[in-house]
Amino acid sequence: MTTDIVATLKEPRMIKICAPMVRYSKLQFRTLVRRYGCDICFTPMILADSFVRSLKARENEFTTHEEDKPLIVQFAAKTVNDFVGAAEMVAPYCNGVDLNCGCPQRWAMKEGYGADLLKKPELVRDLVHEIRNRIPRPFTVSVKIRLLKDIRQTIALCQVLEKAGASFLTVHARTPEMRNEPIDLDNLKLLRDYVQLPLVANGDVKSLENAEFLFKESRSEGVMSARGILTNPALFSGHSTTPLVCVQDWLNITSTIPTEFQCFHHHLVFMLEKILPKKDRVLFNNLQDKSSVLEFLENYYNIRPNIQHNSVQLTKCNFDMSYVQHRKRYINYWEDDSFSNFLGNIFDANS
To answer: Are residues 201 and 250 in the same domain?
Structure first.
């Protein structure tokens, strides 16, 4: 039976979510955090145009298995054709797609992706609306945003997305210019007053206590963690630091799902950040191959992979290319000029 993510978000409890993280929220990590109270996982951000055009990109960027649910695939997209094409390809293997409108990295914004889309509400509206027209519910189409400096613009954007048919919104409560400053909880709370859609709050979730505080204060339906869950994959189950049983699980998972050394090692670097003394951490972080990592963990913690005879059966994805091969000319379904003028006034760069 297909998981209904919107129904999950409407449950009377805090829904716990693993953020989309480039290089890190891959299948192996999603498999791990699901064992520690994580309700919904996102893939890393995937470039929709590459995914649509390149078999190699599809094979490298998207892997899943039968237990990898509920799953949302996040795309960076700036054209309807690319977003719809990529969404229709992954739809049989996930529960929804998400549009990245929050990535503040220079390369993404220069290319017209991520937070650059925050000032293009008509484009974001069209991207969401076309997915909603083509893929039936309960499949979700969501958007992850950051706050704009003028909260009125953020409210207007969210209301546009609501009208376009978005399923839910994730709000990282910082502006694209902010980095390590505390989140803007006041504006997040204000936004909640104007948006009827389910909201997921994101930012500064480094412990279960942080998550519960943010959930309560923001009156959101869910809470998302990124760096916090990377450092402690057991965060949502109440552990203050990564428990050794979680490290053991990581060794077991990566012995059954093929994992590149860099991914295998980097996750352990994050997990051990708060529990290894500095001298040993420097040594561990500079290890260069899997055998030396396993030897270190066995000598230091007396843990080793429990090798299972059968590797995990990955889902064989047969992507439907029909939409990409027979692209229809895109029709603008939004012909209300007064509404467009309203948007233009709200998002006037000089205002």
So the answer is: no
13 and 58 share one domain: yes
- On whether residue 346 sits in a domain, the answer given is no
* Same domain membership, residue 273 and residue 138: no
Q: Say if residue 102 is in the same domain as residue 225.
A: yes
Local confidence pLDDT in tens for the 351 residues of the chain:
578 999 999 999 999 999 999 999 999 999 999 999 999 999 999 999 999 999 999 999 999 999 999 999 999 999 999 999 999 999 999 999 999 999 999 999 999 999 999 999 999 999 999 999 999 999 999 999 999 999 999 999 999 999 999 999 999 999 999 988 999 999 999 999 999 999 999 999 999 999 999 999 999 999 999 999 999 999 999 999 999 999 999 999 999 999 999 999 999 999 999 999 999 999 999 999 999 999 999 999 999 999 765 678 999 999 988 877 766 444 333 333 333 443 444 444 333
Which amino acid would we find at residue 89? M
Domain identity same for 127 and 169: yes
**Closest to 33 in 3D by CA, of 75, 70, 3, 1:** 70
> CB under 8 Å to 47, separation ≥6 — which residues?
57, 75, 76, 113
> Which range of residues forms the domain containing residue 38?
5-231
128 and 262 co-located in one domain: no
Distance (Å, whole) CA 285 – CA 270: 9
Question: How many distinct structural domains can be found in the chain?
Answer: 2
pTM for the model stands at 0.91
Residue 341 lies in a domain: no
* H or E, element range at 142: strand 140-146
Q: Are 202 and 164 within one domain?
A: yes
Q: Quick one: 147 and 269 in the same domain?
A: no
Q: Which residues are catalytic?
A: 103
Find all residues with CB under 8 Å of 38, minimum gap 6, and list them.
Answer: 16, 17, 18, 30, 229, 236
